Design the sequence.
């Protein structure tokens, strides 16, 4: 009789972890938390019909509508419009996030690495950064034609600041000893950039990207509410205007889920790129 | 230990070469920080001659300027007056306040500076790779060989965060040695270690030294460490750093752990202790804070 001491991999690893997690209180706490939240929502809107809350659709109304083949108020998982709104918002986020990352990360890296570039760019960045994204709305409508470009511009702008700043702080956070060690070992400037600056800043960059994708959603929805033809933000504000409250809530819930999924994706990418960081943290029991 | 033929040749080659190289002359070096504002003299007219292939231990109170000296040799900081020569060639001196950094002088840092984002093998392979001496695959191959030789064969593909501090410190020394340096500069590398790990580190370093005969410039607080490892122990004064006394350690090599309980060792301890204690009291009276 021999017992396997091989570590499980792939699917068996997933099943093992899943079974293991059922033995901890974590999943039950989550289920209880979500249940409690839904119950309070139901109690306020549908159970007790508290004053003013009675105008808000409760969970039963929302989920009946969401899973209805022929929804009364126009939006459910069986209507193509629902997916169109999601798709349009996701596409805008993808473009905005890609531009913001593509510009923000290199800019932040260079600002952290070279004092001269920082002296050029930092004052401008710090002046523009505190301006709320909603204050940019009129300007962006004047600057760009159509619906698409201004909305993407606003989402890009918001996440650009976060990404750049976090990347720069990431470079600042690198221990001087690594630069010295790289110098001793005979690195060129480019080697230092490639082997010390970029990987050293990566943990901060991904913290920044996780915040930045959240900020991108935030400003995208604000922009879609002001100027838009489609998208989840537009769905929410359009439903409100037309006095159909159920699609409004469906839009909000969908936004929450889609936003959550995108930030999980960013985190997964970060963990995949930073095995060294994940393993070091795991050994510290985190 | 299993030593392959190529490693043996390597060791033999570096042995014969290093015997005649790595002589370090520190002549009348003075370092003043912040010449415009409040002048702090970290090193004052400090001279030392370190022969090729010598293990030279620098002992002195905290914050006395030992690290400043090391930084000047490594090329991290400039010096104000004096000159430093390596094998008769000027590293820094009049007209050239700061030495260039180079792989012939390898530093092992106080808190360790293995790149946490590279595996031990990648860390060790980094030097030869960026210097263009070896291709990436050859550098990695050699790096794995050298790590295995240092008893780290089982952890070559681990990240520094996954191995013990003793292992990562040994790997850092391997990362230095793969570049075949003339001088190894160590800045209290075993400071934060417990006594047991430390003694293993010492034996490992001695074993490495006996194999390579590289010149070692080693800063420490630990007097036993200084005598156990060193050919010479240079005791320096409290700030500004100056050579106070040199103690020759004539204990035969190879040394083993038992050496530390010999009468010879005890007498040397007394000699060093006396000189250091005097400086420690001076440093304490001067209200010097722990800086180093």
Sequence:
């Amino acid at each position: 009789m021999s017992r396997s001491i091989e570590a499980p991999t792939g699917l068996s690893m997933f099943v093992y972890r899943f079974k293991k997690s059922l033995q901890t209180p974590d999943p039950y706490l989550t289920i209880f938390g979500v249940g409690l939240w839904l119950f309070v929502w139901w109690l306020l809107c549908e159970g007790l019909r508290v004053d003013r809350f009675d105008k808000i659709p409760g969970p039963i109304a929302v989920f009946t509508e969401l899973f209805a083949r022929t929804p009364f108020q126009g939006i459910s998982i069986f209507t193509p419009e629902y997916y169109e709104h999601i798709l349009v918002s996701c596409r805008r986020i993808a473009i905005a996030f890609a531009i913001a990352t593509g510009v923000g990360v290199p800019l932040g890296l260079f600002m952290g690495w070279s004092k001269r570039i920082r002296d050029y760019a930092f004052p401008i960045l710090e002046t523009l950064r505190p301006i709320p994204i909603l204050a940019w709305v009129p300007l962006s409508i004047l600057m760009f034609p159509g619906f698409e470009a201004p909305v993407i511009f606003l989402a890009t702008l918001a996440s650009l600041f976060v990404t750049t700043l976090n990347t720069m702080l990431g470079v600042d956070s690198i221990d001087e000893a690594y630069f010295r060690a790289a110098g001793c070992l005979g690195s060129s400037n480019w080697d230092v950039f490639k082997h010390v600056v970029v990987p050293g800043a990566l943990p901060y960059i991904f913290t920044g990207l996780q915040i930045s994708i959240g900020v991108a959603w935030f400003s995208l929805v604000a922009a879609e509410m002001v100027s838009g033809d489609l998208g989840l933000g537009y769905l929410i504000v359009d439903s409100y205007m037309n006095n159909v409250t159920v699609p409004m809530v469906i839009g909000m819930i969908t936004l929450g889920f889609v936003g959550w999924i995108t930030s999980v994706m960013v985190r997964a990418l970060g963990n995949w790129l930073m095995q060294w960081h994940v393993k070091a943290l795991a050994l510290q029991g985190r | 230990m299993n030593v392959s033929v190529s490693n043996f040749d390597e060791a033999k080659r570096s042995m014969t070469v290093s015997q005649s190289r790595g002589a370090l002359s520190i002549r009348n070096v003075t370092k003043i920080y912040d010449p415009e504002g409040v002048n702090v003299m970290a090193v004052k007219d400090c001279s030392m001659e370190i022969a090729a292939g010598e293990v030279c231990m620098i002992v002195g109170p905290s914050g006395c300027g030992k690290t400043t000296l090391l930084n000047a040799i490594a090329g991290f900081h400039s010096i104000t007056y004096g000159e430093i020569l390596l094998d008769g060639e000027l590293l820094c001196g009049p007209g050239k306040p700061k030495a260039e950094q180079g792989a012939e002088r390898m530093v092992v840092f106080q808190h360790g500076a293995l790149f946490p984002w590279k595996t031990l093998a990648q860390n060790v392979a980094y030097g030869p790779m960026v210097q263009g001496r070896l291709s990436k695959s050859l550098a990695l191959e050699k790096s794995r060989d050298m790590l295995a030789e240092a008893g780290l064969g089982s952890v070559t593909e681990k990240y520094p965060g996954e191995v013990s501090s003793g292992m990562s410190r040994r790997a850092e020394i391997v990362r230095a040695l793969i570049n075949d340096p003339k001088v190894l500069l160590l800045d209290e590398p075993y400071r934060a270690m417990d006594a047991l790990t430390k003694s293993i580190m010492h034996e490992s370093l001695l074993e490495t030294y006996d194999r390579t005969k590289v010149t070692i410039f080693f800063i420490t607080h630990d007097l036993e460490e200084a005598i156990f490892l060193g050919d010479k122990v240079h005791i320096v004064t409290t700030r500004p750093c100056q050579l106070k006394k040199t103690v020759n350690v004539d204990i035969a090599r190879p040394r083993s752990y038992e050496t530390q309980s010999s009468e010879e060792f005890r007498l040397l301890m007394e000699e060093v202790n006396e000189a250091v204690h005097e400086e420690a009291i001076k440093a304490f009276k001067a209200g010097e804070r722990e800086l180093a």
